[in-house]
Design goal:
This protein is an alpha/beta fold and about 160 residues long. Helices cover about 30% and strands about 20% of the residues. Strand 4 and strand 5 form a beta hairpin.
Length: about 160
């Protein structure tokens, strides 16, 4: 268990931008994690859909079309998970990733945030209450359960959006 009475949490005001390369994305993420850790953060939270800037890695015809973005982003999902898992491990923190629209076998999507622990454990929480835009334009479906995650500070949960 944690030997302090307080836990320091860093919640990002994530600047979504046109990054253009995976290298620039990894550098941005590492810089943000490093800054948070230098300020004493032990749990790091990233914004809902912050991953959408990764669409800038694709050609303009994909970048400019939301449905094509969702499909193309799936090719980056494994690297996205691995990067966040590695950052949590390297910096010894708990990290909740930006949410990512994950395509399921039935063709629908889940708005999913990954929970990464310092020991390399990776789990996720799906958003449970969709906005109208997510339902009608993105075909994003809600998850089914609230999960809890064990940390050295105690048990926490993840709420995506509202």
């Amino acid at each position: 268990m944690h030997d302090h009475s307080l836990v320091t949490v860093a919640a990002s005001q994530y600047p979504v931008e046109f990054i253009g390369s995976w290298k620039r994305y990894t550098e941005k993420m590492e810089r943000m994690v490093c800054q948070a850790v230098e300020q004493g953060a032990e749990i790091l939270l990233f914004s809902e859909y912050g991953c959408l800037e990764l669409a800038s890695l694709f050609p303009a015809e994909v970048y400019g079309d939301l449905q094509r973005q969702l499909i193309a982003l799936q090719s980056l999902l494994a690297e996205f998970r691995n990067l966040h898992r590695q950052l949590a491990r390297d910096y010894g923190v708990y990290l909740v990733s930006s949410s990512f629209p994950v395509r399921l076998d039935d063709g629908t999507y889940r708005n999913r945030a990954y929970f990464c622990a310092p020991d390399g454990t990776l789990d996720y929480q799906d958003k449970l209450i969709m906005t109208r835009w997510e339902r009608e334009h993105w075909n994003i479906t809600p998850g089914h359960a609230i999960k809890v995650f064990r940390t050295r500070f105690g048990i926490i949960g993840i709420n995506i959006c509202y």
